[in-house]
Amino acid sequence: MSYIHRSLERKFLKMSSAFKVVMVTGARQVGKSTMLKHLAKDTGRVYVSMDDSDIRELAESDPKLFFQMYHPPILIDEVQKAPALFEQIKILCDESDERGRFWLTGSQSRKLVKKAGDSLAGRICILRLFSLSAKELEGRPDDIPEDYALPSLLQRSQRIVDNDIQDIYTRIWEGGMPDMLSMDAELRREYWNSYIDSYLMRDAVDDNGIQDTEGFRKLLRACAAFTGELVNYNDLGSAAGVSGATAREWVNILQTMGIIFLLEPYHNNELKRMIKTPKLYFCDTGFCAFLSSWTSRDTLMNGAASGHYLENYVVSEMLRNSYYGEKKINLNFYRDTNQKEIDLVMEMDGQLHPFEIKRAASPEKTAIKTFSLLKKGGKDIGTGGIICMAAKPFPIDSENSIIPVNLM
Known about the structure:
The chain is globular. Helix content is 40%, strand content 17%. It folds into two domains: 121 residues, 3-Layer(aba) Sandwich (Rossmann fold), CATH 3.40.50; 274 residues, no CATH class. The protein is an alpha/beta fold. Helix 11 crosses helix 12 and helix 11 packs across helix 13. Strand 13 and strand 14 form a beta hairpin.
């Protein structure tokens, strides 16, 4: 299988030219090692993996000797398995002004990020990689929108095939794990079962001290059942047979493992009566679909939860844009105590861009009426609209448009 270019490559290489150490974290199997090995190809950079028990033992017992054997510039894979290296990396960083001497990968964990941040403060840039995005899967350039005005949307639509519900739900159901691209439904099912047993449960026990693995499995499935909804820790705990406090702790662990993310509600001191509860989404919709036993694209597409999955898909694609792009982007949603809601609020360049997400191809244009609630917050309201299954962009008013899902 040929290499699929990742949108994070641009930012990674830029950070490597500015920082002495760059580390890529992310959930298991999202392609961290593959990306860095591709970027290191034909550069003379040494590659070592801490999966090798002999190399790992040397790294832990004698870090100084390790770096005498494996000279920088170096790519160290699975560095979380040899935390003793960090102090020696710090010493070597201080001996040279060379940038990008150390490329590191590590599975996402609180311990790893804290250890790296504490040991290498001021020397390290930590980046995050997700599973493959729609752009990456289609081989499209990293064309993160500069704005969401109609002319920009129309220009983008000329370079992309028309939006198609079956294509979108294929993406949603399959997800973006690189190893699964050529797998059929049966292989996918066994891959995910192995992924849970080999990675998630082991990390839950080894890295996070969870003993009740059966309860943790139940919570994982409960999270999938509640995707796109406000987090209710008591309900999640009840489904897993644990307390609400334990459910909250486990949800935080799933976040640090890169499995789920919590979208925080938009908050502004000028806006009163705002809720404070986040919404829960999965980083990879294919994993979410597996956990909820959706056995095919069509059953998911026609099922009662199809709207929640579309929302999860759109928000997770936008999340990738916010991490990989050059601009600082904040993503939130709006909901007040009167149950008024805006599915997604993007803050970029000092403006708020509001979006509703609908499964329909011809959604009711009145869906944007809640956008006016943001004006009370005192910030400029930029372009936005309804993200939906329409084939082409179309104006709603001077600021908002019908936006096909595949243009995000």
